[in-house]
Amino acid sequence: MTDTSGAPRAADHSTWRLDMAERLASRLEGPRFGVAALYLVGSVKHATAGPASDIDLLVVFEGTAEQRRELLCWLEGWSLCLDEINAARTGYRSGGLLDVHIVTADDLAQRTSFGVKIGSATDPARPLRLKDVAAPVRAAPEPRSPATPDRNE
Question: pTM to 2 decimals?
Fold first, then answer.
């Protein structure tokens, strides 16, 4: 959807950003990075994002310091790539399209920081579905060839 100049329409900024947030979430392995949940807030959630709007994410984090470092690095990669795509689409460059807010169990329990947005009666954060991480698949036993005698025989 573009206007007469060929630039994306205002509604498209929110739609594209929402799609990118959902794609990011669908690839985020919660157990790997210590992430219990991921939420969307701000202009993208409200469908009012403009060409220079960022994507505000709330990360419910329950991991280690190492997992946090890896998570922030992973998200920085997404942020920079999304900024490049946004610049190609709109001409706006921000140095990173994601605005990540880490929320801990203490924030949720005490209703502090951005934790107040999760489950709020007014303007609640929108949950994003994380990647389904299945349990490891166990290899099936190899079939015996008919020529191989059973050792119990």
Answer: 0.80
